[in-house]
Amino acid sequence: MSATPVSPAKRKQILRVIFISLLLDLISFTFILPLFPQLLQFYRTLEPNDSSSLLNRILRGLNAYKQSFSRPISDRYDIVLLGGALGSLFSFLQAIASPIIGTLSDRYGRRTALLWSMAGNIASVALWVAATDFRTFLASRVVGGLSEGNVQIATAMAADISDDKQRGATMALVGVCFSIAFTFGPALGAALASIETVVANPFATAAGFSLFLIVTETLYLYYYLPETLPAARERPATNGSVLRAPDQPKHIRTNSHLLLNFTHFVFILFFSGMEFSLPFMTFDLFGYTSSQSGRLLGFMGLIASILQGSVTRRLHPLRVVQLGVVACAAAFFALGRLTTPTGLWGAATLLAITTGTVVTGLNSLSSFEAGEGERGGKLGNHRSWGQVGRTCGPLLFCTLYWWAGRDVAYAIGGSGMLGVCALVFGGLKAPPKSISKA
């Protein structure tokens, strides 16, 4: 179903607001990613002898998990595993919150839902600024996981103002924000973390600048973002009344949401596990430092940005997904047989192709299958399935990595990705009138 028409000038204005706000949001979000090892080590140092502390109880559980493997895991990975556990917690909370936030955006309007989500983000980052102990830091991650709705609402807004032929190119714009943010955000976060302004929280400078970006984004959205939900554009709510979509003809679906959501889940399950295992593997094989791993990730982000700006936005969304899952399967098998750094960078190129294509294409396909009055909820469900995969993937894949070894783990991962290829090539179909044009 095509979106309710907006003028080209209005569409351009809304896309600009979506792009700038999402870029600010994702740069702020990525600040913390390279800091997890230092953050968690800092809190661990604060509570070295307190066996009853929350942090030490969690570490004891992780150590029991480590000791179940057939070969020992170095203590240097304690913090990495703890960071992975916190990442899984964040994804799990996102899986719960995403469908709710999406449904609320269908009912009350995208702008209203997004501003409430931003209020939660501000609270989350403010807690990080004040996090002089692990409990407060953990609370900031919980609040952030339950309130982060920017990406899915931005995706729904982009779909609201795009017709079928514009949909793929518009979704690629959202993907470009991810690639740019993940290319530059972590490096900026690491640089800010080196500036100590509060002794009780050495990361307050990075957290404070993150808070500044989030507040700036919120004010920008408040003053410049119009409502994009068609029903709300046509009949704005007054006196607290609820926004409801007008009666519309039954939406004809090409792919079931269940198939799209399951494909998203299985892909993220394997892909996120592989992502999380990379620091283990690069250290074991080549002795990579954090800065070397950061350069590798930056390279992947740059390639993904170029791809989304040139190829992804022009290809049919189904072809985009097909390209990405084939590249991912090839990357798995290549990673399982690595012997040189050159091979690693070749596999990283394949992973960059995957990063720049699959999720963007699946989001486009999911948006085609949703009517105007249900788009937020359907895209929220779609994101939720992916977040469940991201919750389970690191745990399952690292268990396999340490029990069976790198070769077996990546061979099984590659075989699983071939199963995703079968779903994509054999199950998914191209919606009519959905050829993307720049």
TrEMBL record:
Alphabetically sorted, this entry's keywords are:
Membrane, Transmembrane, Transmembrane helix, Transport
Q: Does the keyword Cell division apply?
A: no
Report the PANTHER family cross-referenced here: MAJOR FACILITATOR SUPERFAMILY DOMAIN-CONTAINING PROTEIN 10 (PTHR23504:SF31)
Organism listed in the record: Cladonia borealis
Q: Which GO terms describe its cellular component?
A: membrane
Major facilitator superfamily (MFS) profile domain span:
14-431
Q: Which GO terms describe its molecular function?
A: transmembrane transporter activity
> Domain of life of the organism in this record?
Eukaryota
Q: What is the protein's membrane topology class? A: Multi-pass membrane protein
Q: What PROSITE patterns does the entry give?
A: MFS, SUGAR_TRANSPORT_1
- List locations, semicolon-separated: Membrane
The UniProt entry, under Gene3D superfamilies, shows: MFS general substrate transporter like domains
Q: Which InterPro entries match?
A: MFS, MFS_dom, MFS_trans_sf, Sugar_transporter_CS
Protein name per UniProt: Major facilitator superfamily (MFS) profile domain-containing protein
Where are the membrane-spanning stretches?
14-36, 79-101, 113-131, 171-191, 203-225, 258-281, 293-311, 318-338, 344-365, 385-404, 410-428
